[in-house]
Amino acid sequence: MRHQYLVIILSAIVFSSGVCSGQTIVEDFKPSTVNQPGQEYPQVNSQGYARFKILAPEAQSVVVSLGLGGAKGGTTLTKGEKGFWTGTTAGPMDEGFHYYHVTVDGGIFNDPGALNFYGSTRWESGIEIPAHDQDFYALKNVPHGNVQQILFPSKSTNILRRAYVYTPPSYSKEQSKHFPVLYLQHGWGEDETAWSNQGRVNLIMDNLIAEGKIKPFIIVMTYGMTNEAKFGTIASFKIEPFQTVLIDELIPYVDSNFRTIANQSQRAMAGLSMGGMETHTITLNKPHIFSHFALLSGGIYKPEEIKDKSKTKLIFISCGSKENPDRVKNAVTSLKEAGFNAVSYVSEGTGHEFQTWRRSFKELAPLLFKD
């Protein structure tokens, strides 16, 4: 159905469940911090509820859906006076960042009031629910590093591929210094912009460095797919093409164009969700390339999988408390018993979402490249 008549003034609303929480809603709603400039909606309150407002006078149905592909469900909005559709979430949402989209009479739209973020293999609207611990990824008056786009040649895929590189504040000042490198992968349906935009990894790094909590290092983020990325096609994904891009093309390019410490002991790989799957497979396939491994909601390692313990400096495994924390904890216990330097982390009150991965990265970063 065509929507030439449609005018949307949209807020975001996202639901953590379809069941009413029974709380009295506090009317202290404020615009989400990831709204478009000057836009009042979507709004969130101090309890974690979200509120939206859509002008669609001739629409018959308006539904807001949360999560990658709307898989976590949604709610039907109510039409009121002057063509506005309004609603407030049935209960408080988990802290942190969430994707969402709006379905109007069967057509999927983004909220013009909100910024867009690449997820669900498309640009989706985003909403930020204030977190009690959000200070660690806040924009502060501290020295800031640089996130730059690079284009590197890939003979194996016959294109120029893109990556983003974070260099710490001291990189431009200490011209003779070389730095360790973390190769950090996004999840399924996302791309190389995810860790900076949704994850705020550069701000986490800047704040940790300013507090003297970590050894500065470079982060490289690239697109982890080398075949068609569509929902329902994950089973057809093959690691070998991306492994070739990473090991034979990207790493040599980074080592040639940045001041890296180009050896295995100063090189790490980590990833969230599908990026954890990539990390798990590639680090096992190429133990001479990486010495620090991290899986963020991305599976586990078993002691018997790692053939040369001497080459492995750190194994970090994390997830949200709403995922499978016992599996993570038990895996790390087994690794420790086998003599590995292994660490587990569980983000309380979160699931398979960016607040889990922001917190996980905050815990991981101080453990990397320790002398």
Automatic annotation (TrEMBL):
Tell whether ATP-binding is among the UniProt keywords.
no
Q: Name one GO molecular function term.
A: acyltransferase activity, transferring groups other than amino-acyl groups
Tell me where the signal peptide lies.
Answer: 1-21
Q: Which InterPro entries match?
A: AB_hydrolase_fold (IPR029058), Esterase-like (IPR000801), Ig-like_fold (IPR013783), Ig_E-set (IPR014756), Mycobacterial_A85_antigen (IPR050583)
Pfam families for the chain: Esterase
Ordered alphabetically, the record's keywords are: Signal
Q: What name does UniProt use for this protein? A: Esterase
